[in-house]
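Task: encode each sequence below as structure tokens.

Item 1
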Amino acid sequence: MQRYFVDELNDSQAVITGEDVHHITRVMRMNIGDNIICCNNGKIAQCSITEITNDTVFADVVEWVENANELPVKVCIASGLPKGDKLEYVIQKGTELGATEFVPFLGARSIVKWDSKKGQKKVERWNKIAKEAAEQSHRAVIPVIQQPLSLKELIAHSDLYDYKLIAYEEDAKRGEKSNLARVLSELKDGQSLLVIIGPEGGLSEKEVLMLQEEGFLSCSFGPRILRTETAPLYVLSAVSYHFELAR
């Protein structure tokens, strides 16, 4: 059954606008009486289409669906702004793996320069990618995509999270292998984790020291050095295994 994140979902009705109206009417060629799954702020309902206008679809709630598809902990991926479309890949696959927030940041070794005026279209595209990935993977919520932050702004944002990790390749080279496992064992259902992953050149020693002074714990993701677009998927998979499969 086709799934949509809707603008409004109350006790009796869902209201759908925007591009999803075109998808329902022109792509899927649905009609009155057809059933869809509607999601809004973590609520999920099976609905039956009752009215279609040029710009809005109305659907009555048939039954509520229990949400069992979200990770029991919140995970934010903070990625040093990478080149090309790597962040699009991270957002798409990271959404499928259960991330609740993505925060791009401008690291000392980020090659990409961010233009806030031109960048708004990129942010809109990132949000569209997250929405489509959330629908495809049967998520109940769409991850939040932040505007790129400076490292200082990211540190301030990290106060919202219970645990804070840095993926640091020098730790991998030194053979560190316990910090990620320890944090996952301490992390409880309902708590939150923020993971910082550097751009292609990694994090500088100065950045790591600054973050450690603010309560971040550096760790490795195994003995191999991972690409900036691979590391987020590694840690999200580890969280999923620990909280969803190993229990």
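Item 2
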Amino acid sequence: MHETRRLSRLFAAAVGALGAVVLVASPASAHVGNETLGFDSGFLHPLTGLDHLLAMVAVGVVAATWRRDRALWLAPAAFLLGMVTGGLVGMIGMPFPGAEVLIVASVILLGVAIAAAVTDDRGAAWVLPVLAFAGLAHGHAHGAEAPVSAHPVLYVIGFLLATACVHAAGVGVGSLVRDRRLVRVSMGVATASAGVLLLTGA
């Protein structure tokens, strides 16, 4: 049993490391200006904002620290599903009042979730809807800022892939800190505090 848990942690850490490698290895020569296809601009867009990065990493950490096996995919899936919906809504020009504030607020709430290490169904009752709604706000921002010449499908695939890679990196981090209460709580507080600072400047 102990060996199985150890292997699952190593696997999660390896997935996170792979996600980080993919991000670092993404071509430095990728040109956002080459928007005839849209994949490059879609992939790079989520990586250009601190609020987006904090939220995406936090989703992965929440997934890894949640004491339910299915959360490892359920939490990121909720966020990504919200992103797809929000991205499409943003790309067709539908408004989303207060989206920027909601994006920053999601960073705060995810920081709280990390610090609290949600472990039960009562936590799922608010964490999953928060993740889906946060994904909706983040996705809308990506979609609304899509280059006019970008291919919609490739652009969406690009920002979803980038988001999934950052989620994987967050899972790797979360797998290392979930049993280290002080480190986990400190990470959660730091994330929420960064959200508060971003909110005051929003």
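Check on item 2: Helices lie at 2-25, 39-44, 50-65, 71-91, 99-116, 121-144, 152-177, 181-200. The first helix runs from residue 2 to 25.
End of task.
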